Amino acid sequence: MTATVRTPRTPGTGRLARTAAATVALCILGGAGSAYAYWTTTGIGSGSATNGTMQAVTVDALIPGDTLQTSLVPGGTADVILRATNLNAHAVTIYGIAASGPVTADSGHPGCTTTGVTFTPPAAPLTPAVIIQPNTSIQLTLGNAASMSAASVSACQGAQFNVPVTLEVRK
Fold this sequence. Notes:
Layout: H1 13-40, E1 58-60, E2 77-86, E3 92-99, E4 104-105, E5 117-119, E6 130-132, E7 136-148, E8 161-162, E9 165-170
Antiparallel strand pairs: 1-2, 2-7, 3-6, 3-9, 4-8, 5-7
């Protein structure tokens, strides 16, 4: 008689292997899905900010200590001197300068009714950039920006001319 020896079979060995393989597969897929969700997640929200009010930059003609380097004569040109003051707590850049009214003579020359004076502002944006630091003033000299035609009356001799300008400044 021949005896056959049977090895006892552990119940569920095949099932355990299949369950372990399925668990590993789910962990891998779940990890990849979590990584995908992490990198593609979007959200919504809100924020707020306040904007301060920019103070006007003031412009003066000549103030004590400023001196003219050129004189305006009929048929000639001369420099225009401006003093710009930045009252803001931050620096500003002068972007452009424009004429903002007719040129007039000082009050000591009432007969200077036809001044013949014109103002030619520099092209915007100013090059090089002109920056005014916070709470300071600077003197700007605009070379040959004023011209006087030969049509000016004799009563304009020795006059100082008021050239109204507007500065465009940006933060």
